[in-house]
Amino acid sequence: MKNPLLNINRLPEFSKIRPVHVEPAIDQVITENKKNLLALLENIDHVTWENLIIPLEEMDNRLSRVWSPVSHLNSVCNSEALRKAHEACLPKLSAYSTEMSQNEDLYRAYCALKNSDEFATLSQARKKTVENALLKFEISGVGLEPEKKQQFKEIKQRLSTLKSKFENNVLDATQAWRIHIEDEAELVGLPEYARGMAKQAAEEEELEGWVFTLDAPFFIAVMTYADKRPFREEMYTAYTTRASDQGPNAGEFDNSEIMEQILECRKELAGLLGYANYAELSIADKMAETTNSVMEFLNDLVEKSKSRALNEYKELKAFARSHDGLNNIKAWDIAYYAEKLKQKEYDITDEELKPYFPAEKVIQGLFDIVEKLYGIKVTRLKDIDVWHKDVAFYQITDGQGNLRGSFYLDLYARANKRGGAWMDECVRRMQCGETIQHPVAYLTCNLTPPVGGDPALLTHNEVTTLFHEFGHGLHHMLTRVNDLFVSGINGVEWDAVELPSQFMENWCWEKEGLALISGHYKTGEPLPEILFNKLIKAKNFQSAMFMLRQLEFSIFDFRLHMEYGQSNFESIQLLLNDVRQKVAVVIPPSFNRFQNGFSHIFAGGYSAGYYSYKWAEVLSADAFSKFEEKGIFDEATGREFLTEVLEKGGSAGAMELFKNFRGREPQIDALLRHSGLS
Predict the structure, then answer these.
(1) C-beta separation of 254 from 245 below 8 A
(2) What's the whole-number average pLDDT of the chain?
(3) Which are the contacts of 82, defined by CB distance < 8 A and separation ≥ 6?
């Protein structure tokens, strides 16, 4: 029987993919790619774009299309068998990638193309493809001695396995803990939707009462609303000690040693390439010019936020004292009293807002917004093979009905699904002979699922999460670039990749935008004026505290990758403690092991790059300020953002594209204004 993974000329056949298909498919494609590369380099006399890059694009595309559904299924339908198959392929893929980027013959071919007469005639996108590749060769050790090349390759393979283990430990630790409650008195304060979710979870286990897990919708609801302080403490302790040496599952899925090994591997890679530390290596292909400039940017934001944040925290403590006589506020009290204070100050709750944000209305409103901005149409297609009954598939067409891209939408939290929200590539845009291969995206969230007979009702925060991921999706799907290595998000500097996603969030706060995405799930009534005004007034509630929390993560990540392995470096925990002393206003309890679940930097692509979120916020706020000047649905400005940013993908430097759209370099003023800090 034909391996379904090898049929790359159609959408993945998720219902037919089995763990047993994975390794043979990857082995076959890697073997064929190596054979094709050897033949290519042996038979090439005069290097041209057509005889070098086109075949390389085809090889890369084939491997990507085989691996993408496997990697995705491992994140959204994790099972022991699939995990084993996935893990068995990671060292092979890492070795293949390193061999490609250290292949001296291939490097010389790229150099020949760069130095040829043809290079001057290439499009900007194609020149960028070649320049990016040459930089990648250099930071992948193409110039190393054979022995060091082998060492580099082995470290990359080891890193690949370690990152996967880290992610698996977080998932397993999240799923290992649950609390079964039979006494309804324990649930005081929890809104109906949270009780309904917990009731549903209990029924799925054929239990009476309520079951709470560490999935985000449960955790956030308990932290924000549960009146019973011991319940909040228990949930907080379990969540913040996941995959660590602390808490209810202490030592069982501990990531402590894995983190050390990951950092050691990264330090060794940087050293082999002649960099002082991994942070230097990380920014080699980013917008940031030096590690100092990154730290200056972050510290400047700390300075602009700290005094406001201290006042916000002082106000919160005073409120807890006056409200409940609580003199010693703890970490598990912060979200609870913040919500109570917000209710007092602004008379608004998520519970009041949720009925106005049924998922279907939000989704349709989101599509209406991008149609107004970019002249595109989003349509749902039925009878597409998906991995779960809740997954929907859509296609995007332009004003003339031409296909631009498609996406899978997987909205709700469930068992065996990785936490968080993300966009990933299923298929990338490229020229395939006479035709265009159109992009396909995976858009994944962990939002509150439907409860009982009601539709899924979203918090406003969940709405902005959906908009954020859709922004990433548009960057991937609306590209007009046909050269694979710089189409969509490919080739975009990592510290600019969050620009389109954070940019989309702005429409969740605008009256005209909210009119499209809100409507009471029973009556269809739009969000009342009074609730809109309260929502906007409450927008920057504790914004300085939130800003500092993000800066704490960013500075911890960057300093960790700058300082690990230096003589004065003591431990990950002590460094985090030091960052908190300088940055944070809320110091967590000593058992908190946030870092052991910090997948962004230990398992994802944000190592020494978490600052990207803050830098991209500067870009996105400044980009949106042009819409504030012209009108948030100004057609000309929308088309300008489409053509100058979204359609151009990685075909030019992010700063160049930003300046083309904004007419100048980015300024921080809009971010401070949007955050209420100016």
Answers:
(1) yes
(2) 97
(3) 19, 22, 70, 73, 74
Domain extent listing, the chain:
4-101+103-139, 177-240, 256-347+543-610, 355-539+613-674
Which residues participate in catalysis according to the annotation? 469
Single-letter amino acid code for the residue at 112: A
**Structural tokens at position 38:** 């050897």
Cα-based angle 394, 398, 403 (whole degrees, multiple of 5): 55
Three-class SS state of 358:
strand
Q: Report H helices in 140-255.
A: 146-176, 192-204, 216-225, 229-240
For 616-644, write each residue's pLDDT tens digit.
999 999 999 999 999 999 999 999 999 99
The architecture CATH gives domain 355-539+613-674: Orthogonal Bundle (1.10)
In DSSP notation, 29-89 reads HHHHHHHHHHHHHHH-SS--IIIIIHHHHHHHHHHHHHHHHHHHHHHHS--HHHHHHHHHH
Residues of the chain with pLDDT under 50: none
Which residues face 393 on adjacent strands?
381, 408
User: Which letter does DSSP use for residue 669 in this model?
Assistant: H
Which residue type occupies 122?
Answer: L
Q: What residue has token string 């449960």?
A: 218
Q: How far is CA 348 from the centre of its chain?
A: 29
Q: What residues have CB less than 8 Å from 50, skipping those under 6 apart?
A: none
End-to-end CA distance of the chain: 64
Separation between Cα atoms, residue 120 and residue 446, nearest integer Å: 47
Q: What are the tens digits of pLDDT across the range 176-187? A: 999 999 999 999
Q: How many CB atoms lie within 10 A of CB 530?
A: 10
Give the pLDDT confidence score for residue 453 in this predicted structure.
Answer: 87
The domains spanning 256-347+543-610 and 355-539+613-674 adopt the same CATH topology = yes
For domain 4-101+103-139, say whether CATH 1.20.1050.40 is its number.
yes
Fold of 256-347+543-610: Neurolysin; domain 3 (1.10.1370)
Cβ neighbours around 300 below 10 Å, total = 11
Question: What is the Cα–Cα distance from 675 to 542, expressed in whole angstroms?
Answer: 10
Q: What integer pLDDT is reported at residue 22 of this predicted model?
A: 98
Taking the C-alpha atoms of residue 54 and residue 51, their distance in angstroms, rounded to an integer, is 6
Residue recorded with tokens 């799923």: 175
Give the torsion through C-alpha atoms of 657, 661, 663, 668, to 10 deg: -80
E strands in 348-451: 377-381, 392-397, 403-412, 422-427, 430-432, 435-437, 440-447
DSSP H helices in 347-444: 350-353, 359-374
Written as six digits, the tokens of 521 are 């799930």
Tokens of 412: 């709700």
In the numeric block, the tokens 């559904």 are attached to 69
**Separation between Cα atoms, residue 156 and residue 160, nearest integer Å:** 6
Distance CA(162)–CA(387), nearest Å, equals 27
Amino acid letter, 319: F
Cβ atoms within 10 Å of 83's Cβ, excluding its own:
16
Q: How far apart are CA 534 and CA 343, in angstroms?
A: 10
The distance from CA 380 to its chain's CA centroid, rounded to whole angstroms, is: 24
pLDDT at 1: 66
pLDDT tens string 547-573? 999 999 999 999 999 999 999 999 999
Give the whole-angstrom CA distance, residue 539 versus residue 306: 18
441 - beta bridge partners? 407, 425
Q: Are 392 and 412 in contact (CB under 8 A)?
A: no
Q: Token pair for residue 548?
A: 């500092």
